[in-house]
Fold these 2 entries.
Entry 1:
Amino acid sequence: MKDKLKQSIIAITSANLKRILYSQKVTQRDLAALTGISIPSINRYYLGNGAIPQSNLIKIAKALHVAPNELDPSYQPTKDFLSQLAEKSSDPDLKFRTEYLKQLIQNSNLSVQELADKLSLKPITVYKWLAGVNTPSKENTAKLADLFNVSVDSLTDTSKELELTPQQKKILTALPSNLTDQQTDLIISLIKSVLTNTN
């Protein structure tokens, strides 16, 4: 369990580093010059190929004018972050698409802290979702769907077979099978827009 959490934290740290560098228009080469850390090491952290040692994390955070925990969620004042993460409190009836949530967060350029603030939650709760330790409650899933302008069904795995009308089948057969989640949501938005404008 802790290995899975560690890998998730490395992935989150990598995504945070990419987002902050992009928003500040700082290149990996710039960051290496600002921190004195080698370019290959910066590249390794950027790609998520290993955890950032605490000494380098602090240098990077200072260079980018952010708190260390804005980069690496495991850098917390709490004594045992992984133990907190391992505490389960999810809804057993809800199957949640964690990877899709990660993609939505990355595409929105929101930090975990900002997302937690918008949902009136503690950041640790969101980190638990992203680590796959917990899943959001039905209420929080609805809030996430509203925030990212997607359907609740797109965030959860539903096992029910839907009865399709001939019109729905016609639309489905016209769509390619290799659509990304983002393309799917865009098509859904377009359909909703067309239906709204014709009513």
Note: The first helix runs from residue 2 to 24.
Entry 2:
Amino acid sequence: MAKQSNILEKYDLAKLKNESKSFITIPRKIVSLKIPENEKGMFIQLLSMAGIAPGLSYHYVLTNQSVDSLVNAIFWKKGNKRIAYSHTQQLKSLLEQLQTDKLVKISRRDNGYFDIILPTVHKLREGDDGFVKLYFGSLSKIKTQLVGMQRLKTLFFYATIRSKVYENNQQQEVITDSPNYFAKLANISAASSKKHFEWLRNNGVLAYYKCEQRKLAGYIKYFYADMHDADILTKVVKGYIEQEVIKKVLE
């Protein structure tokens, strides 16, 4: 039991409670749009960089942008001219796709720069499916540790996980669905989904407990939550132990 207690105390809950819980929102339906994962990730990347413009009906806006500045913002690795050209073309293609799919508007300036106008605060929170909260702390961990397309894919996968979280209900703030389930939801391979989960838990984006369930001997299940919800995750897992749903916490 002592080992169990130590595992259940692996997160500094007092410290996590004091961390910022600032967030941005995206409509839940964006996750299921039939567009490439890179494009959805780019939308999240731009939204996380944007500011709110009261003079533009509270649209999120990025001003005075260039293709080079956005390539640098995503920290694509600098290489020879051929690689640099490839990154530039990929960035241009993503912006064109976002504009074609009406997720952003691009307003050209006389100086060769452009503004990127994203939806309004209100627009990002409306719709029958509701909206998804993406926390800046988690977004920052992804953005500071990953670059290029891998960053965009991981931003989208984080949003996919968050799309299944319904706050104000502790049970629904804990993620119990399998990587295979999220692979289907994100329209990616099961192997890619497993790699995303592994990266997110190993890099402090997701809090987790690896557990052996009592009902099926040897059946291992992961329980996840956003890192700032580690206290809720710990409480739920302890509850499952008391209810004898969980036999043992392994890590």
Note: Residues 81-100 form the longest helix (20 residues).
